[in-house]
Automatic annotation (TrEMBL):
Originating species: Vibrio alginolyticus
SMART domains tied to this protein: REC (SM00448)
Pfam families on file: AAA_lid_14, HTH_8, Response_reg
GO biological process terms on file: phosphorelay signal transduction system; regulation of DNA-templated transcription
SUPFAM superfamilies registered for this protein in UniProt: CheY-like, Homeodomain-like, P-loop containing nucleoside triphosphate hydrolases
Domain of life assignment: Bacteria
Protein name as it appears in the record: Sigma-54-dependent Fis family transcriptional regulator
Domain Response regulatory: from-to ranges: 4-118
Domain Sigma-54 factor interaction: 270-333
Keyword annotations of the record: ATP-binding, Nucleotide-binding, Phosphoprotein, Transcription, Transcription regulation, Two-component regulatory system
Coiled coil: none
Sites of 4-aspartylphosphate modification: D53
Amino acid sequence: MNNPVFFVDDEPHIRDAVSQALLIEGIDVTCLPNAVEALRVIDSNTPAIIITDIHMPVMDGLEFMRTLRSKNDHFQFIVLTGHGDVKTAVDAMKSGAYDFLEKPFSTEQLMKSLNNASDKLNLLQENIWLKKELDMQTHVGPKMIGHSKAMVSIRRALISAPTSQPLIFVGQDGTGRRLAAQFAHDIHATPDSELIAASGEDLYELSLEALDKAIHRLSEGKRHCCLYLHSAEHVSFEQWEYLFKHPKLERVFGATTQAEPPLKSLATLIHLPTLDERKEDIGPLYKHFVRHTASRYQLQPPHISLEEVKHLTSLEWPENVKQLRQFAELRALKPDTFRMEDWNSEKSLEIQSMTQRTEYFEYCLLFDALQRHRGRLKEVQLELQVSRKTLYDKLKKHQLDKAKFKA
């Protein structure tokens, strides 16, 4: 059972008997002597299953249940009543109890009720996660796309994490550490909060006084901020604790490529998988990037066949999602010259050279200018500040026809 269980009863011998019975069944239970103590100990933000006696001094079981469920109605209560006490049982069910058991009850009866209550609580929690995930995935802003087990687990961890908890995203370059931080920020941050960024390499030599000045400079003009710290492994324990407690920062996120970062004891680690470890997400990611690029440049998105996705899934992606996005952008921008056979060799997936990266950037720059100026070369020439001959040579090189951009 993955849900916390509490047992509240004012009689020590009954608490001992129930505790031993549940421990034998493999259930870790927290026993409490009265409702007042239970309200002090139980975190209302973490729904649990609560077995409680009705008749207790100071605060009875019904009042205890109403008080706790008024804060969070996902708590599942199993109330214990005297034999034949029908009225109390009815009152308990009307007040929101999941089930009631008449004393004396067997371990089998208790376990059946516990398991059913746990199933209901799991279903309620599942619905919360699905609703939050749907809200985030339909929200304008970064989306963590993918239905692999790893991505579902990561999204749920980010949705469920306490709002002030510092997180460190661990993963290779291109796995989406900044995107995950933005996603986590957007879930819990105040509406006017912004995510500011800094590098641990730039901060690690700073004194705390200088670090304070750097944070004020980064957050200038912003009411609420969260910090995304790239290369977080470079900052010291003292600096990280200072950032975590800084009054200008609502929350701190770190990012590192180290599997076991030095700061792991001061934050929750979120491990991001490589693209090769989540192959089933390649299709949805690729289609999303193609559609996004086509929409950005007001193009008709090309048809993505099942064979194309299967081929992409069979390849290795050393630069992870970043590399897949680049191929998707080329697919959307160059649908006429795109050939699947160009991707059949391992050479096509090698990390690109400086020249290849420059040519890709040049192509995007030309395409964007032609799109905005609707193929009017004189305006494109003025914007890019190149000679007429250079512009024509570049258009020819990249097989860009001005006629295709005219309204």
